[in-house]
Amino acid sequence: xxxxxxxxxxxxxxxxxxxDGPSLSASARGxxxxxxxxxxxxxxxxxxxxxxxxEAATNIQRHATDGALLLRTLHxxxxxxxxxxxxxxxxxxxxxxxxxxxxxxxxxxLGIGLGAVARLADHFDVHSVPGKGTVMAAxxxxxxxxxxxxxxxMAAGQQLVSGMTRPISGEMTCGDAWSAxxxxxxxxxxxxAVLVMMCDGLGHGPLAARASAAAVAAFRxxxxxxxxxxxxxxxxxxxxxxxxxxxxxxxDPAARRVRYCGIxxxxxxxxxxxxxxxxxxxxxxxxxxxxxxxxxEEPLPEGGALAMHSDGLTERWDHTALPGLLHHSPLVVAxxxxxxxxxxxxxxxxxxxxxxx
Length: 357
Fold this sequence. Notes:
CATH topology of the largest domain: Phosphatase 2c, domain 1
Number of strands: 18
Distance between the termini: 14 Å
Protein name: ATP-binding SpoIIE family protein phosphatase
EC number: 3.1.3.16
Shape: globular
Order of helices and strands: EEHHEEHHEEHEEEHHEEEEEEEEHE
Keywords: ATP-binding, Hydrolase, Nucleotide-binding
GO molecular function, one term: protein serine/threonine phosphatase activity
Oligomer: single chain
Strand order of the largest sheet: 1-8-9-10-11-16
Pfam families: HATPase_c_2, SpoIIE
CATH architecture of the largest domain: 4-Layer Sandwich
Radius of gyration: 20 Å
Helix content: 25-40%
């Protein structure tokens, strides 16, 4: 199911962003090796993580107009892993398959090639658009003696929900956060119902982060499984904080519908192969001045996805101009939306649910 416990399937506020620059490869390599050791990967596996991260970072340095690498950990009840994501603007790859072939490593890199990075990873995904840029994601779990990834690693590659957050330029702490969990009481064919929440704490920095952390805790701890009830729990939890904008979506695969309740400037969309459908929020400030709640219901688009983001992304993006995007993992979809529409003058967060229905 993914890097999850029995109820909360993922929650995020990312800290370890490395921006393009002369020290990108060295900084990312050292941090990757240290992080791998910290989560318990053995010496050989930690070296593989460092090698893969260096190759990815070197590609950004040599080819991207602008780029960044996000390094973070994933956890199940029993295992931990290192995950990296690269997001870059630049020429992109005209032929991704050729770029992944052996011997196609860029000049000046370590020479292992992106194909080797893909083989080292337990889960690997890349999407590239010529003239726009590339997003690459890879996960590294511990390996057994037979050199096969643990069961948790294989499950992690099938995440239903993933996303990322990025702080405003000059700030270390992001005031946005998101989380997702399952409603295991829901019955019907296919996946159980999935709940997704995003909160944008007012302003920036630690006080904004405190508000969004309170929202994540309330979302995680409440037994309520309907969006309006969850929003009320978040509103109560944010009293005494700055407050923020927040939204909750409930995806019901059996009923093929999504119910959405939002207050403030969280943008929600259903993505289909032919366009997107906006999910509406109402004005107000959660924790301070929350008006009457309203839940909107929409049918789920065939083969589509749910995307939610803060106002650190503009709404001037068009996923249909990124060929094949909806065939990729939720994390890569989120990365492409951040690359397309993210701004540096605000905290930014985006979360995507895909493969749920």
